[in-house]
Write a structure and sequence with these properties.
The chain is of the alpha+beta class. The protein is built from 21 helices and 13 strands.
């Protein structure tokens, strides 16, 4: 008999089980994986690998200190942890044990929060040196730099910078710290400044000029700031400084104009130029004087003017009809809400439930201040009556300004065109985006729990450096995330609202890339990479241990390959 039936396999036996039975019948000795080796530990690795690769390509270690040390390794771990998943200092030391971060950076298992605080104190002493290195990387003579200010609320009562001020976080009863970021033209952070929470925006600008000139050694640059940051007083100081320097250099020959919109060449070898916008009160004067009229925007949405009150400057008037409609709609809504509230007060007065000019005035003032519509409402108060009506002339004057704003700059037309100047001002949104990322759940700089000035400074600086790393990671991964990898069109209409590219719109609408893979956000991409684990195994017979790392799938490997595009 050549063949004989050993057993009949029922349908419940899977193909894998059948193959194992075949191997047993062939005389092989099968060993269970748990008998061959033991898995001692498994830690998330892929997201750590991605962040550390980016940090190495950016030279963050050399940026912080040229020589390796325990303090530098801890600071690198704090920066990486902020990008991966923000946590408190104590929680960070615990999180390092659940990933390969501590192992990759050579941190000992005994690192605790006290070691972290010592490393933070060490970092603060190197802050200015690190910022100077960043400036050397990304700034040149004639560079365009942006500066903006924000605030973050504080827990506790003993921080010396904590004070009450304009609360951007809308946290009533909380003191705050003001902090500013000086960025390059692309939005990379260069320098961090901290101020008491009661400091106004204009008072912070002088320190940035000093930083650029004395610390970074850059005498010629163009400063971009919003209308509340660069005031007329600052501009007069800049003009005076430029005039003194120009006069002192005439003996060495006239300065020449060169460069383009990306690298602005100054008119002299040392000069401060600026790009900002007129404040509403100043704009209103130009509209009332007839210098700016709505009819001038019939055929174009921007035009350039000069004015005797702004010598040596160009004024670029812009009108955004979309913004104009939004402002008109908002004004109508606020005005109607105010009139309804006043009507309720009048009903109380007419019914005799509210009497006395002082009491009626307090009630009316509260409602006018609530929606800030008092400038458009005229009212008459007596001891027993209240009359009010809208001021049509005031409404018409404000409506004439809807959607209009004016950019002011000292740069001549041959250095930067009107359209490029408007785009440069609107690109302040890059600095604002840095604030949103650092203050939001991405990097979680707030609230501040530290008390000592050095620790507060170190906390902000670690978050700033983490944003520097994240900024480059987001660019490298733009093609596989919801970000617009093509960026804004450099020739786009500078006044019209920015639009996304067709590719970015398609990614957002379908949630998929062109290859069918899902489109990620930055956080979900890191979470996907975190599934790449490194497992420590122990061989059963010899007792030797060895690591095994999960093989990345196609999408994960593509994300890791994209990191090769990161450059300083």
């Amino acid at each position: 008999m050549r063949k004989r039936t050993v057993a009949n396999l029922t349908k419940e036996v899977t193909l894998e089980q059948a193959l194992i039975i075949r191997r047993v019948l062939a005389g092989e000795t099968l060993v269970a994986p748990s008998d061959a080796f033991e898995q001692l530990a498994s830690r998330a690795h892929g997201h750590v690998q991605a962040v550390l690769v980016a940090m190495r390509k950016l030279g963050v270690g050399q940026l912080i200190a040229s020589r390796s040390s325990a303090e530098r390794d801890i600071v690198l771990a704090l920066i990486a942890q902020r990008v991966i998943k923000p946590a408190s200092k104590l929680a960070s030391t615990r999180a390092w044990r659940t990933t390969t971060l501590a192992q990759e950076l050579g941190l000992s298992a005994g690192v605790d929060e006290d070691d972290v605080y010592r490393a933070m104190d060490w970092l603060v002493r190197r802050k200015e040196r690190i910022e100077a290195k960043l400036a050397k990387r990304h700034l040149r003579s004639g560079s365009l730099v942006r500066f903006d200010l924000s605030s973050t609320y504080v827990e506790g009562e003993h921080c010396e910078l904590a004070a009450f001020g304009y609360n951007r976080d809308k946290k009533r009863g909380k003191k705050q710290i003001n902090w500013g970021l000086l960025t390059d033209q692309e939005g990379r952070p260069i320098a961090l400044s901290l101020f008491p929470g009661s400091t106004g925006d204009p008072a912070t600008l002088g320190q940035q000029v000093t930083t650029m000139r004395e610390r970074f050694g850059i005498d010629s640059f163009t400063l971009v700031g919003d209308r509340g940051m660069i005031t007329g007083k600052h501009i007069k100081q800049f003009q005076l400084t430029n005039a003194v320097r120009d006069e002192s250099e005439l003996g060495d020959g006239e300065g020449s104009v060169g460069g383009d919109g990306a690298n602005l060449a100054p008119l002299a070898s040392a000069r401060i130029d600026w790009i900002t916008a007129l404040q509403s009160a100043t704009l209103k004067k130009l509209v009332d004087q007839g210098v700016i009229q709505t009819s001038l925007f019939d055929e174009t949405n921007l035009f350039e003017i000069t004015h005797a009150d702004y010598p040596g400057e160009r004024l670029i008037a812009c009108r955004n009809p979309v913004l104009g409609r939004k402002r008109a709609h908002k004004r109508v809504e606020l005005l109607n809400a105010t009139l309804r509230e006043l009507a309720k007060i009048k009903a109380r007065v007419d019914a005799g439930r509210l009497a006395g000019a002082d009491k009626i005035g307090v009630a009316v003032g509260a409602k006018l201040g609530k929606y800030k519509m008092g400038k458009h409402i005229r009212h008459t108060i007596t001891a027993s009556t209240l009359e009010f009506h809208t001021d049509s002339a005031s409404l018409e004057r404000e409506a004439a300004m809807d959607g209009i704003y004016v950019i002011r700059t000292s740069l001549p037309q041959e250095v930067m065109t009107s359209a490029a100047t408007v785009r440069a001002y609107k690109d302040l949104s890059r600095a604002e985006r840095a604030f949103r990322t650092i203050k939001g759940i991405d990097l979680s700089v707030r609230p501040i729990h530290h008390r000592l000035l050095e620790r507060v400074t170190a906390h902000f600086f670690i978050c700033t450096l983490a944003y520097y790393v994240r900024w480059h990671l987001e660019r490298a991964w733009a093609s596989i995330t919801f970000a617009d990898e093509h960026g804004a069109d450099p020739e786009r209409d500078p006044v019209a609202p920015a639009t996304r590219s067709a590719a970015a719109t398609r990614k957002a609408q379908t949630g998929k890339l062109d290859n069918g893979e899902p489109t990620h956000s930055f956080s979900t991409l890191l979470a996907d990479l975190a599934t790449i684990a490194r497992t420590t195994c122990k061989e059963a017979i010899s007792g030797a241990t060895f690591p095994m790392t999960t093989t990345p799938n196609t999408a994960q490997q593509h994300a890791l390959d994209l990191l090769d595009s990161i450059t300083v």
